[in-house]
Design goal:
This protein is α+β, with helices and mostly antiparallel strands. The protein contains 13 helices and 23 strands. It has helices at 9-23, 78-87, 181-190, 195-202, 208-216, 220-228, 263-310, 315-327, 361-404, 409-421, 457-467, 497-509, 554-557; strands at 28-35, 38-45, 48-55, 62-66, 91-96, 103-111, 117-125, 132-136, 142-145, 233-237, 239-244, 256-259, 338-343, 349-354, 441-444, 450-453, 473-477, 485-487, 519-525, 529-530, 541-542, 546-550, 561-563. Strand 1 (28-35) and strand 2 (38-45) form a beta hairpin. Helix 3 packs across helix 4 (195-202), helix 4 (195-202) crosses helix 5 and helix 7 packs antiparallel against helix 9 (361-404).
Length: 564
């Protein structure tokens, strides 16, 4: 089964018309830059604020209206400042597209510093890894662009501020709506190649899924009808795999299909989750690497110390040797290589004790006592080192788990701050850049109980030790890192089996065991949860607990309403 996702020129044509219908004539209110290759514009319309997202990311280049929350950096990049200077309050006059080319030109009526009317064009080129967003003035000169292309990158055209904007090379393909049907069919049939490839070679704006549909049996006339009366559809095989403007037949019953009323709604559904988590992953990659290195180092320290501890295992034998020599001084002499003595600790079995012939029996006994004390001290220190290293490794594993579930920049920033406070990051975090205190996630059970879920270790401490009361119910996955989960008690309303299962599901889903089955989740009242002195963030001990076994599943979890 083939999936080769592409936002084609025909789909873009429908997106353009949809955006134009919603935003034409309205002014730009705010401009943001969520990531290096993405821009977000907000417009004030009669129906409220509308958000326009433009992306030049190689794997998800697109333009769309979005209803999703997009987190923006606290400090706007230089490109954002420049766009705000030229386009804030500018009116969107028109959106142009040449045929079904994957290039849209947004034309804005703006004013300069003197109040004179000027025109700016914001051009988005959707071409895979060559995608770009370019601001051009009314003379066709590039003001700025998301990706700068010099002569070393492209011999055909440079895309740099101050240069004249030149269109990408045109392919001069046929237009399915304006060219005659028989000419299109003749052009396709004249090519000695696979039909789907021939369709892509001949027609403008055709994605692989559409080309394969023609090969599967769709006529040019039928394709025209779908373009004129589109039905935005996503192909789903476990997760969204592809999309187009009609329900494809090539996959039969092997896939599911989801239709949308609007093209932008489809794009939101298809791209949001994948792009959102990829963006978060990019922003947390350095932290993951740092944490993994620290955790591996802590594990190695524990293992190395345990090897050293092996050498202390015979310490009691050394003390026994000293005791036996001392008890038999009256019959021992200097110069012996060993002493054969009855071990009164072991049924008077004879034991051969190595001796230094240059030392007296008393000195040999003292030598064994000295080695015993040395190993006794070493054992105590090594056990402390091992426990510390294991606690450090467990803590770092819990931070890695929390980071793997972080869904916003704020959550990542909070984890960075936690690591700084715990001494694992040494780059100082200024007070003004310190993230705002995050609230725990809140859910409402099907029976109306509030369930709170910690997002990181600091918040786990806050939730369990300060925000909760003695008889609230506390949950945590057994023997694995995860969030603290607390059900707020309601006076004269008992905790039911159903509630316990729902809270246990949240605890399992917000843990390292999220993808496991039959996960053990311990639960007890807050009164039974304690933090040992000196324990790291999020580390607690508990007693008098019960255990619930659950398998995280979307159906049950979706029944729990998350409160923003």
């Amino acid at each position: 089964m083939c999936f080769d996702v592409a936002l084609d020129g025909i789909f873009l044509y429908h997106l353009k018309n949809e955006i134009k219908n919603e935003l034409q004539g309205f002014r730009v209110d705010k401009i943001y830059q969520p990531s290096r290759e993405e821009l977000l514009f907000t417009f004030k319309t009669y129906e409220g604020t509308k958000k326009l997202l433009l992306s030049a990311r190689a794997e998800s280049a697109r333009v769309q209206l979005t209803k999703q929350y997009v987190e923006n950096p606290k400090k706007p990049p230089m490109l954002t400042m420049l766009l705000r200077k030229h386009l804030t309050s500018a009116r969107l006059r028109d959106i142009e597209q040449d045929g079904f080319e994957r290039i849209l030109t947004f034309i804005f009526d703006a004013t300069n510093e003197l109040g004179d009317p000027v025109v700016f064009k914001l051009i988005i080129e959707i071409m895979g890894r060559h995608s770009n967003i370019i601001l051009v003035d009314e003379n066709g000169i590039i003001v700025e662009c998301v990706k700068k292309i010099d002569e070393f990158v492209s011999s055909y055209r440079e895309v740099l501020p101050g240069l004249k904007y030149v269109l990408p090379p045109q392919q001069n393909k046929m237009n399915i709506l304006t060219d005659e049907k028989y000419k299109i069919e003749n052009a396709i049939n004249s090519l000695n190649m696979k039909k789907s490839k021939a369709v892509s070679e001949v027609l403008q704006g055709i994605s692989p899924i559409v080309a394969r549909e023609v090969e599967f049996g769709m006529s040019i006339g039928e394709l025209r009808a779908h373009i004129k009366n589109p039905e935005p559809t996503v192909v789903i095989l476990d997760s969204p795999k592809d999309f187009t403007y009609f329900k494809p037949m090539q996959y039969g019953d092997l896939c599911e299909y989801k239709s949308f009323d609007k093209f932008s709604e489809l794009i939101d559904y298809f791209y949001y989750e994948q792009v959102h988590f990829e963006r978060i992953k990019q922003r947390s990659n350095d932290l993951f690497r740092h944490l993994t290195t620290l955790q591996e180092r802590a594990v190695r320290k524990a293992v190395n110390r345990e090897h050293e501890l092996e050498d202390c295992k015979n310490k009691e034998e050394l003390k026994v040797y000293g005791d036996l020599i001392n008890a038999n001084l009256y019959r021992l002499e200097k110069g012996s290589l060993f002493y054969d003595l009855e071990n009164f600790y072991d049924n008077n079995e004879v034991v051969r004790i190595p001796a230094d012939p240059t030392l007296t029996p008393v000195q040999n006994a003292q030598k064994y006592y000295k080695e015993y004390r040395k190993k006794q001290i070493a054992e105590t220190k090594l056990n402390a080192f091992i426990n510390q290293a294991k606690a450090e490794a467990a803590y770092l594993e819990s931070v890695i788990d929390a980071l793997s579930r972080a869904q916003t920049d704020s959550e990542i920033s909070a984890i960075r701050a936690e690591l700084y406070d715990a001494g694992f990051i040494h780059k100082r975090i200024d007070k003004k850049n310190r993230p705002k205190k995050l609230e725990p996630k809140k859910f409402i059970s099907t029976e109306g109980f509030e369930i709170r879920v910690g997002r990181n270790n600091v918040q786990n401490d806050e939730l369990t030790l300060r925000l909760s009361k003695n008889y609230d119910l506390w949950f945590h996955v057994k023997d694995a890192p995860g969030s603290h989960v607390v059900v707020t008690a309601i006076k004269e309303k008992p905790f039911t089996d159903k509630l316990i299962r729902e809270a246990a599901l949240l605890a399992a889903a917000n843990s390292k065991a999220a993808s496991s089955s039959n996960v053990a989740v311990d639960y007890t009242i807050i009164k039974n949860v304690h933090k040992p002195n000196g324990a790291k963030f999020g580390m607690v001990i508990y007693d008098n607990y019960n255990t619930e076994y659950v398998t995280p599943n979307e159906e049950e979890l979706s029944a729990l309403k998350e409160v923003e």
